[in-house]
Amino acid sequence: MALVSTATVASSSYHCDLLLFPGARRSWRGPRWSRGGAGARLPVLPRAGGGLAVLERAGSTAAVSRREELVPAGNGRSSYEVESLIDRLSNLPPRGSIARCLETARHRLTLQDFAAVYREFSRRGDWQRSLRLFKYMQRQSWCRPDEHIHAIVIGVLGRQGPALLDKCLEVFHDLPAESRTALSYTSLIAAYARNALHEEARALLDQMKAAGVAPTAATYNTVLAACARATDPPVPFDMLLGLFAEMRHDASPPTHGVMEAHTRVGATAEAVAVLRQMQADGCAPTAATYRVLLDLYGRQGRFDGVRELFREMRTAVPADTATYNVLFRVYGDGGFFKEVVELFHDMLETGLEPDMVTCENVMAACGRGGLHKDAREVLEYMTREAMVPTADAYTGLVEALGHAAMYEEAYVAFNMMTEIGSLPTLETYNALAFAYARGGLFQEAEAIFSRMSNNAGIQKNKDSFDALIEAYCQGAQLDDAVKAYMDMRKSKFNPDERSLEGVLNAYCIAGVIDESKEQFEELQSSVTVPSIIAYCMMLSLYARNDRWSDAYDLLEEMKTNRASSTHQVIASLIKGEYDDSSNWQMVEYALKNSTMEGCDYSLRFFNALLDVLWWFGQKGRAARVLDQAVKFGLFPELYRDTKLVWSLDVHRMSVGGALVAVSVWLNKLYDRLVEDEDLPQLASVVVLFSISRRGEMEKSTITRGLPPAKVVYSFLNDTLSSSFHFPKWNKGRIICLKSQLKKPQSAVDSSNGSPAAGFVPMMNSHLPSPGSKIYTREDQLENGTGHLPDEPLVEEKESASRIVSSQELLCCPSHLQL
């Protein structure tokens, strides 16, 4: 094994501008970036001081420097694209083509990037180019303006004097009535207020309230400022007092600002105390008030508090779409994926209309949770409501399908995006690549990244390299896995815990102890506590090499870990200390918690745990853990039975996990034989899945030598006396024909009813004492695997004569087609 070591916009007097150009807020999960499409979301830009005041104070600074303040730091591609577009539009003649200016950047600019362009034109007072660009965007599906863009353009036009107020109204009315919130109304009110038209501003405020849109404090402040500055004639003071009284009644009261200040520093008790004080003083909290606290509880992981507060809110004030959007994000980030779907249906039943943010959040939760059926239903809802799914929405669908090993369906969804004008983003490519990676489909992962860079012009990020590392590890291309890790480092990406675990997995699979220990130590120095996945990898490595003293030292370290009770529970599980019903509930709780991290983490967690339990001889406990994984919806492809085929699919499992699954499956097969069920034409174990080049890998004899295939093949034939074989037409499956299945059935029939648990005794062995030789004895070749014969044990003629007809296979699910 040739593995190498890796250790080497406006005046500050108008408060509307604070809504359009908010100051940076810190997000515990980080902003989600969208590459356009209808309803794309705009992350908050990190900017000192907020608004265009930064640009106005730096009036003598060069234009390039000003433009750099308009784009997010650390995103060189976006900064370059924005500057280039500004330059091209600035040099465009009056009758020049805007479409031609955007040809090279089409689908690569986000709505946030366009917002930066408008802010620069606003600074220059160039309303003509702003309006032309806006009209172009209206005609495009990939960059259709959302409310934020409408509000910015209204602000740009409103600064040019009363002559352009009609155009402000046109832009405002272009926004569908159901999409108008306080943001767009306040922007239009500010345009009239800025031109000293306080009566019109007040009339718009009344119109806003009549439309059912609640004014904010910024809305009232804008009107109050306009009225206070009126001189010909001046606005009576009692009218100003009346307007202020309306603000106290309708808008969020000043005690609201105090609540937000507490939430920014995580002071939950103080924020709740403000809410209770508001209620005691007769200031009825609004939906916005509750949203602040719901978000705070969610960021702190206090989901019981979220539920209680939401119940209280529903008795006090109707929940709106924005409130549900907060709940979707909070529950999705917290791992309550099914609860997000239930809330979505609850929202529809209340009569509220989901917006694009709603659908994106629900699709994201479905993606992380592997809820592909629910994701499809949300997509169907969007289609019925004439909503154009964004790239973020489709990414959730691709991710959900990938978690279910539905590769072809994920690829179809991926291609469908282009047809509707929502081009795949970097996140979409990564989601598809990770789907391939979990199944060891490294050729497909390579191909998708090649398409990404060559056709879309998008470069890999750290997550892309993580996907490649996982694909190579699962596909037993271990040298390539380490090379991908080194390429990540050369590309100036800092590896995180996921990256370090990926290369540790490569070393552990290869069985190189020194390099694995070195990598584990690097992981220990990088994080507070290595994950259970990393511990299990090392424990499996030590067990397979009969390094039991090292294994028990590491197990004790894991058990005495005071920073994580889950580490303690899993260590006790491995040692066999939690088998009774009360303690097993703690195990089930720990296993359940792993699923709240999403399917991506859960699959790696259960694979690592099943692997260590197998090599530690804990077959009974491993079977119980596998049963829990299946109940959680993981490995949905594992068992597929029809009248024609009994199938087991272990292509996404670790070696130990695959052996656990094969053992359980063989015992189920035993039960069927005992019950004298009708035998299928074929029993099949899928050890490798390939969709590229018409299954080239599945037809290669090299497949039979890969560790998972080799170990599973040996185990099957050691158990059932050479009943299984690799057919010549597909080396990714190990099959047993009906004629061969009759042999173990005859053996079962001849047992005369003598008691037997199955073909494989699923008992828990005593842990080996230090110095024991279990897997490294001379009679054990390559960690316990037997010799793989050069030729199939059953003649191909018999296989051909007994094989299921192609017409019959058309009735089988795609996972079972041979």
From TrEMBL:
Similarity-based family: Belongs to the PPR family. P subfamily.
Repeat region (PPR), residues: 181-215, 286-316, 320-354, 355-389, 425-455, 461-495, 531-565
Residue ranges occupied by any Smr domain in the UniProt entry: 648-742
Keywords: Repeat, Transit peptide
The UniProt record lists the keyword Coiled coil: no
Alphabetical list of Pfam families matching this protein: PPR, PPR_2, PPR_3
Organism: Miscanthus lutarioriparius
Protein name: Smr domain-containing protein
Record's keyword annotation contains Transit peptide: yes
SUPFAM superfamilies attached to this UniProt entry: TPR-like
